[in-house]
């Protein structure tokens, strides 16, 4: 019964994997599909929102045009007289004091087209400049979001490569264990080893099977996550077309470039806050606007037998608006200084992160040499012990220890290759310059 339960336990991951269609992919194909990632789509919409804010500032150059049609019915003396005057229907009898003081009901319908053209609006000019800088910052933040997703995709792709490497190591180990297991069983039949030796081999075989199931689950989890990053169906089992191997060393920078996308975005934010502060200061100055209107009047709906126009210009100067404008200018000044401090702190933190990444890369580089040597040594030790065991010169426990050590060193080496490649990739991400 126990053996049946174990067989069912081992078969579950295999059955789950069988439900997936295996699709071979390359890193280039994966990176080409990240544009459908939801995080990137969100950043694109943020850019469009910033562009919308910038387009709103066109109002400081373009005219404002409104049209309206109004109908009234009144016995108000002033309104009645003014309506007849606008309709150009006044007669001498309308100046009769009795009619002026107590007019009969009159209807008036007016169609009006108004134009307001800004001429001088200094605070609006700086607000437009701030909106443009915010748009540039948003575009750079979107670029940085793409870089982050690309880094995560490449990391996940390498994790999937590592997962298949682990499967390969464990399957080779399983074959070795099965071969040794058959050898021990034959020796047991000949009375050359004890039953406890056979049981130890069974335990080791079970351990390998268990590790294989966990490794297959890891492949499914990593494959599904990579599908999510590409915004695709998770019912496909992805498999890299290439195997995990050491990437060649590219030139690695040791200082954070100020032209990096996220840093440039913060720089544009500082420029935007500077313009906002200047706009708040310019709000103390007067504004010059031109205006005009064309009006049609009649006592019948949607008619216009009488017409007239008005054109002119006005200077508006808000001399005192309580302390609102002073407080607004003070707030924008504080936000400007705050953005400068945040920029300096971000540069320092980014350089600190890069220094840590460089040191980690050097550590992993050294570890790679040592783990490779350990694999070679443990492989040779296993070969020697296997031969000595066949000659009856080694215990089964020593053979198992050598076999486990060799498998462990292979897994550690593959993990180190992954760490080495990702450490190099992370440094390149930290020192990547923006497109602007």
Strands, count: 6
SSE string, helix = H, strand = E?
HEHHEHHEHHEHEEHH
Task: Describe the oligomeric state of these chains in a short phrase.
Answer: single chain
State the CATH class of the largest domain.
Mainly Alpha
**Major β-sheet profile:** 4 strands, antiparallel
Straight-line distance between termini? 68 Å
Q: What can be said about this structure in brief?
A:
The protein is an alpha+beta fold. 65% of the residues lie in helices and 14% in strands. The chain folds into 2 domains: 2-62 and 121-283 and 321-430, Up-down Bundle (Outer membrane efflux proteins (OEP)), CATH 1.20.1600; 66-120 and 286-317, no CATH class.
Question: Can you tell me about this structure?
Answer:
- Helix 6 (122-189) packs antiparallel against helix 10 (396-430), helix 8 (261-282) packs antiparallel against helix 9 (324-390) and helix 9 runs antiparallel to helix 10 (396-430).
- This protein has helices at residues 2-18, 27-32, 38-56, 77-87, 97-101, 122-189, 195-229, 261-282, 324-390, 396-430; strands at residues 21-25, 64-74, 106-120, 236-240, 287-298, 306-316.
- The strands form two sheets. The protein has a four-stranded antiparallel beta sheet. The chain has a two-stranded parallel sheet with strand order 1-4.
- The chain has two domains: 2-62 and 121-283 and 321-430, Outer membrane efflux proteins (OEP) (Up-down Bundle); 66-120 and 286-317, no CATH class.
- The protein is built from ten helices and six strands.
- Mean pLDDT is 87; it is low at 1-16.
- The longest helix is centred in the middle third of the chain and has 68 residues, at 122-189.
- With 436 residues, it is α+β, with helices and mostly antiparallel strands.
- A hairpin with a 7-residue loop joins strand 5 (287-298) and strand 6 (306-316).
- It is found in: Cell outer membrane.
- It comes from Spongiivirga citrea.
- InterPro entries: OMP_efflux (IPR003423), TolC-like (IPR051906).
